[in-house]
Amino acid sequence: MNITIIGTGLIGGSIAMAIRGFNTKIIGVDSSEENIKTALELGIIDHAMEWKQAVMISELVILAVPVDAARALLPLILDCISDTCVVIDMGSTKVGICNNARRHPRRAQYVASHPMAGTENSGPQAAFADLFKGKKTIICEQELSSTFALNQAKLLYKILGMTILYMSPEDHDKHIAYVSHLAHVIAYALSITVLEIEKDEKKIFEMAGSGFDSTVRIAKSSTSMWTPILQQNADYLIASIDEYVETLLDFKRAIEHKDSARLSELIDEANKIRKVLHK
Q: Are the CB atoms for 60 and 86 separated by under 8 Å?
């Protein structure tokens, strides 16, 4: 089975490593010559090709590029594939790409998905086979995908060790704005703030503990990946930022007014997240 992976970085590379040994020939496509060279050297992919040549000879195409590139490329890929090929994208915004594919004659051969897995590192050198194990993936508009295409996606995610959830593109983007995209904005903002302070206070990073490290870890995430994500999910993300700012101001007012009761209320409210995350 020929599988083309477009984007040989952390996500695409990790998928390639996880599906090794399943009678597959993995073709890598990447705009970065360095990524292709590294993926070949590490044995992550078997061959490298241009995308059009690769998708024409493949039974499965995995689209693991930044969301702006995926949105533009998907219709072109659907134009070129065979009648039996399935295309699955890995993007973390879904409204834009689903809208772009909805009227395409080969829409049924496409599965819109988002595996909820990743690290702050990027590139094929960061890839590892167990990245997805035990994590969740989201499939959107499953009713527009053929049974065959959905079964191929289910098989892929079974091999990756993931649990599948189903939702609309709009619900996906709304919820992901809160549980993922907002967290990245907060981490970026905190990192910028601390770096500004660090210019005058050289000891600040010597004092930083594990709490700071875990909070800003995702601020090291790829600029080329996260800039288009934040732009494509702007409406839902802005709403989530507005709510976060209001809560932050609530904390500020309580601290300014030495309002111990309100601070305790806010912290107690925040502590409820334990019950949600440990279900």
A: yes
